Amino acid sequence: MRMKKALATLLVAASTVATLAACGSGGSQSEEQKPESISFWHYDKETSAQTMAWKEAAADFTKKTGVKVKFEVKSFAQIAQNSSQFLNSDQAPDIMESNRGNGSAGMLSSMGLLSDLGPYVKKYGWDKKVTKADSSMARYNDKGVMDGDTWYGAPNYAEYQRVYYNKDLFAKHNIKEPTTLAEFEEACQKFKDAGVTPIAADAGEFGVLWLWWQLVSTKADKGLIQDWQMYKHPVNWKDPALSYATETLNDWLNKGYISRNATGLKAEDTTTSFIKGDYPIYQTGTWNQGRFVEQIKNFDWDASILPGSKFAQGCTGNLLTIPEKSKHKELAAQLIDIVLSKKEQNGIAKHGGIPVAADNNSIDNPKNKAMAEEYAKFSKKNALSYYPDYPAANLTDAMPAALQELVNGTKNPDQTLNAIKDAYTSGVKDMDVKD
Q1: Which positions carry the signal peptide feature in this UniProt record (predicted)?
Q2: In-domain check, residue 180
Q3: 5 confidence band (pLDDT: 50, 70, 90)
Q4: Structural domain total, the chain
Q5: Which domain holds residue 227?
Q6: Is residue 382 one of the residues assigned to a domain?
Q7: What is the pLDDT of residues 224-276, one digit of tens each?
Q8: CATH number for the domain that contains residue 309
Q9: CB-CB contact of 279 with 273 (8 Å)
């Protein structure tokens, strides 16, 4: 989710990129001479689980092939905003980390700037290692819409939304950790009665939006998710799941389960507040799990998906792609295959990430093991709802803005849902992905 800010820029550049792409023919693919190194561009932090695993994989790759891996760290903005230009030039790297989704990897693939990885999927059996749900963000059709037939990226880790509980606060107030949505609301009311605001949520960024979509997933069926994310059919805006989530969120605001002050909060505000022990409940992405393991020292905590959810809000993380202009595609594919090996996938788990092809029994930390197993349960059932702003570039800003007005009371639930509908409809139309 935090990678979506550049989608509008990509859309603006689309006509320019299409012209540039028409001028190129895919670059040299010669592997006759083994290079000294291949280039790998990424923007993840050096301390992230996936980056550490990539570097471990690179060491194994060098031992096997004699070829070094030259890692180059770029900012997310550099890759997201300028990828169309360098991908169509001789400066293209051999491997590039790319944001997933219709407006990112999907758009670049539809412009002919990313390699079709189908031959490598078949050669190395990646489709046997990665579940269908986890590969949905790696596969696109000719319009750049996810869950298509052609692999343009390799998923190698995952992320999703969980509800984190401060177990000490629950014990202090003699409140049971919830296992159903009814128990969740009952716990919130008990905390409120005790003078404690139960849920940490920011409306200044994406926290309230993610909570809204998780509430949708307690009532939605697979059809609504596919219509929303993949344009299978027009979204039924009268679907009870959408009205239920919006009305429930408003009810929680009215009851004080979420503070109206959330309108001015951002993710770092709520994350640090939870770490300090200010809130008993916090829904956030699993990218914060490693931080919680390291930084929470003054209380015990637990986590699980929101009770009653039929879908996990999340998906595989950023993709490893091979640009069409890569000069060393075969070597790039060999490195990706090592990243997807059991050893390196177990390494992602060891470093606190969620692997997509690991042996979860090998994970030593019980909290990280529980996280990986919970995600695997939903992935194997093909029960991922992704994130609600994926269908169109404008939704990254428009949906949080609509829900922010619900939080501060300037829009009621019907008006909020209508604002989301208007933004979704216009955004999907601008994406020009429907026949």
Answers
A1: 1-21
A2: yes
A3: very low
A4: 2
A5: 160-314+387-431
A6: no
A7: 999 999 999 999 999 999 999 999 999 999 999 999 999 999 999 999 999 99
A8: 3.40.190.10
A9: yes
